[in-house]
Amino acid sequence: IIALVGSAHGALANVYYAAKTGNDSNTCAQAQDSATAKLTIRAALACVGSGVDVGAGHTVIVKEGTYDEYFDNIIPGGTSWATPFTLMASPGEVVTLHPNHPGWRVMTTTDIGYVVIEGFRIDGSTTPYEAIKLDCRYQNGLDVVPGTCTHHVRLKNLEIVNTEGGGINLGGDGSDHELIGLKIRDCGLRV
User: Distance between the two ends of the chain, CA-based, in angstroms?
Assistant: First the structure.
């Protein structure tokens, strides 16, 4: 299935797939078919690009399996709730994000808005902090750079488990996030 929708920039928006049976050598055009998906989520995200609004109307659907990946400011933003960027587990399938290396977080974002993250099981057992941080950029280590905070992110039907520092950090001055149907368990509390 290929979904084509007009985006805010007039270009066609697409659906890209990642699957454990995929191949990162497949072209982005091929990755629009679940039978010729990318192997990694990062490679599927690269088909969209990263940036403030380059993901408008685009979707990355991740097929069943466990993915040893983390996402540090590579998730693109959308332009409105009518044209968000969507990263989602394939409906009815169990998709686990579990980076198999010590890292900061499974997912960190700054500078983006109008993003939907849906349907994943996020295992943060290798992360010393929260699984997800929706943040801002800082100058001098403390001062928020104006206009750089993550905003309008919808986290939907996620299961977040096994993190030392808590499930989600809504850091900085971000706003208008939606947390829908989340299950957060076996996570520490960072003070």
Answer: 45
Token pair of 80 as six digits:
């409105």
3-state secondary structure of 46: helix
- pLDDT 10s digits, 130-152: 899 999 888 887 888 888 889 99
SS3 label, residue 42? helix
Query: Cβ(160)–Cβ(167) under 8 Å?
Result: yes
Report residue 168: phi and psi, to 5°.
-135, 140
**Whole-angstrom Cα distance, residue 104 to residue 85?**
24
pTM: 0.90
Phi, psi of 157 (to 5 degrees): 50, 45
For 141, other C-beta atoms within 10 Å of its C-beta total 5
C-alpha distances out from residue 6 to 34, 47, 85, 180, Å: 21, 17, 13, 27
Rounded Cα–Cα distance for residues 134 and 126 (Å): 19
